[in-house]
Design a protein that fits this description.
The chain is α+β, with helices and mostly antiparallel strands. About 25% of the residues lie in helices and about 25% in strands. Strands 6, 7, 8, 9, 12, 13, 14, 15 and 16 form a nine-stranded mixed sheet that branches. It is elongated and about 60 Å long.
């Protein structure tokens, strides 16, 4: 059965479809030794390689890690570009990639895996998966700030979804988001005249941060089964 290369790379857990499209655009993917065009379909007998290395061991063990990302580490799988990238930092023996991202100046929980299917399901924002953060800002928080953060801020041509915000200190608050706009919390605060001085993600869905900075651990069986339950209604990414 034929399938597009980006779908194939996602299904075998090599990377997400979006990342696969980038690899194809950059000419880093070959099929039977030749660089394919976008949208090329392959069959099971075709030999696919990335950067000259063959891929396609679909039966390899699935890895699911929780990692406490330090400030300064970049969530990219392109190890040629950034020396402080997450893949080199963790240096895991099997190829894995982050699910979503955390800004370079942000810290806290990020999940990594080699299962492309679960990445696609989790990244679909319309599934409204919760992510929880502790945020410190450069000046005291006011009731008006909390009210406006909870009820939607106009950024990036849209208005942010209503969310839960609770003050936890004079300059600190906890926020639970169900969407993932680019630099969303920082942009929301900037709109209200505040600057984020520390941003830490402490939970993704049912998985809470419980490990020291710079360390990782496998998801527990319970966490994984709960996660599967939460995303079971997520449709896979469509073409």
């Amino acid at each position: 059965m034929e399938k597009r290369i980006n779908k194939y790379l996602s299904e075998i857990g090599y990377c997400s479809r979006r990342a696969a499209d980038k690899l194809i655009e950059q000419g880093r993917v070959t099929v039977n030794g030749k660089v394919p065009e976008m949208g090329t379909k392959i069959s099971e007998n075709d030999r696919v390689a990335v950067d000259g290395k063959p891929v396609g061991e679909p039966d390899e063990e699935r890895i699911y890690l929780a990692f406490n990302k330090p400030v300064g580490i970049v969530c990219t799988t392109d190890t040629r570009v950034e020396k402080n990238n997450i893949i080199d930092f963790i240096n895991y023996p099997v190829r894995i990639f982050p699910i979503g991202r955390l800004d370079k100046p942000s810290e806290g929980l990020i999940l990594l895996t080699n299962d492309g299917d679960i990445v696609n399901k989790i990244l679909r924002a319309r599934n409204h998966h919760e992510k929880e953060y502790i945020v410190r800002v450069n000046k005291p928080i006011t009731p008006d700030f909390l009210h406006r953060m909870r009820n939607g801020i106009p950024i990036l041509g849209t208005v942010t979804r209503k969310c839960e915000v609770e003050q936890t200190g004079k300059n600190e608050f906890r926020i639970i988001l169900t969407q993932g706009l680019n630099r969303q919390i920082r942009r929301m605060c900037e709109y209200l005249g505040y600057r984020v001085t520390r941003l830490k993600r402490i939970r993704i869905m049912n998985i809470s941060l419980d490990i020291p900075t710079g360390k990782y651990r496998p998801l527990t069986e319970r966490e994984f089964s709960e996660l599967q339950e939460l995303i079971k209604d997520s449709s896979k990414t469509h073409e």
